[in-house]
Amino acid sequence: MCGENKASFKWTNNENSEPYLFGPSNRQHQLTLQKPRNQRTQQAINNMLIPLRKAKTYQQFQNEQYRLYTLADETDLFNPNQVTTFILTLTKLNPKNRQRTNEPLSNGYKKCLLQTYYTFCSCNQIPFDRPKLRATFPVPIIPTREQIQKIVSMATWKYATIFTIMAETAIEPQELTNIPHSHINLDKGEISVMGTKHHANGNYILKPKTAEMLRQYLQRRNPNKPPFPISKSIQLSWQRCRRSAVKKYCDPELRKVPLKNLRNFAGAEYYYGAGNKDMVAVQRFMRHYRISTTQQYLQNLKIRTEDHDQYITRTVQLGQQDTKQQIQDLLDNGFTYILTADNHAYFRKRKQLQIT
Q1: Per-residue pLDDT of the chain in tens (356 residues, 90 and over written 9)
Q2: How far apart are CA 287 and CA 196, in angstroms?
Q3: What CA–CA distance (Å, rounded) separates 121 from 118?
Q4: Which of 17, 26, 48, 340 has CA atoms 20 to 30 A from the CA of 289?
Q5: Phi and psi dihedrals of 165, rounded to 5?
Q6: Which residues of 192-229 are buried (b: 16+ CB within 10 A; e: fewer)?
Q7: H helix runs in the chain, sequence order
Q8: What phi, psi does 194 have (nearest 5°)?
Q9: For every residue of 284-306, which 3-state class applies, written as one string?
Q10: Which residues pair with residue 337 across a beta bridge?
Q11: Around Cβ 69, how many Cβ atoms within 10 Å?
């Protein structure tokens, strides 16, 4: 796949059809090039894709294009009833032989197809009464600190920095890729992110250690290139590190930790840390537009108790000359007062993710 080149594809169908305005990715080109389309259909597709390409990120545009071409290959796009019936009865595709199976698609993906077709109809003034589907989503899986640490420890300095930022800020890979140099403030250790996948924009102030990792990372990176690699490279690097960690630590459970779960991990850390178990604060941190989306993330957090957290504890003997200074230093470093017993004050601070 890596050896293929988009420039070598011939984006023409027949004498009566126009060439494709945009070539699909290597992963998608086999399906989208199967059937020819007449000039009217291709022009209607272009009416949707031309403005969409400017409004969406590259990956979002590719997904929309793939879904639209899938509908165009199997149905008449100017017949809403036929398209609706096709979507509602669509089954999953076998990636090996590209044949449809008997397993139905989830309502979540059907809603994506209906949304894509609704956009197509809006661009071409086609009346379409979009059916309403109720999608059910699985409870998000939240990896442990040990699992994240094992996988990140197998990464190079470059991707260790990237994974650490993602595990701390809940930034998606595509959002990280879209960050330009102008949205990074190295003096404050601040990153400004433009949201994708219906996420709002936001600013994150990195922890001192992570901010220093980012400074060293940018010093070694070509300033003429974007600060971060493309999302596909980040995904592949995570998969390589995960395979290496499974072999080194003999932990098959690490295979169940995809890259997207770093966002879940960051949300959980914020919920139990700076978020003070406040749902609204977590919503702002995760940049969700709807509180119901945040509630979906918090389903798996409710079964976790403080007994599962790991803390660093410190004690200060009372009545000494430097007692006040010791207490002040602990409070400045993020420790929280717990209790006083046997002439000692007890403080604790929850452990943070450490990258080795």
Answers
A1: 334 333 333 333 333 333 333 334 444 444 444 466 788 888 888 889 888 887 776 777 888 888 898 898 888 999 999 999 999 888 887 777 777 788 888 888 888 899 899 999 999 999 998 888 876 666 677 888 899 999 999 999 999 999 999 999 999 998 999 999 999 999 999 999 988 877 889 999 999 999 999 999 999 998 899 999 998 899 999 999 999 999 999 999 999 899 988 998 998 888 888 777 788 888 899 998 888 788 777 766 654 444 445 667 788 888 888 888 888 888 888 888 877 766 788 888 876 655 43
A2: 10
A3: 5
A4: 48
A5: -65, -45
A6: ebebbeebeebebebeeebbebbeebbeebeeeeebbb
A7: 29-32, 39-55, 58-74, 80-88, 107-123, 145-152, 157-169, 173-177, 208-220, 231-249, 261-272, 279-286, 291-298, 323-332
A8: -100, 125
A9: HHHCECCHHHHHHHHCCCCCCCH
A10: 347
A11: 22
Cβ(51)–Cβ(64) below 8 Å:
no
Residues in the chain: 356
Domain boundaries, the chain: 6-123, 145-298, 311-350
C-beta pairs of 201-208 under 8 Å, 24+ apart in sequence: 201/287, 202/284, 202/285, 202/287, 204/168, 204/169, 204/171, 206/165, 206/168, 206/169, 207/168, 207/352
Q: What are phi and psi of 104, to 5 degrees?
A: -70, 155
Give the dihedral of Cα atoms 179, 232, 159, 256; nearest 10 deg. 120
The CA distance from 131 to 84, in Å, is 8
Closest CA to 353 of 269, 292, 279: 269
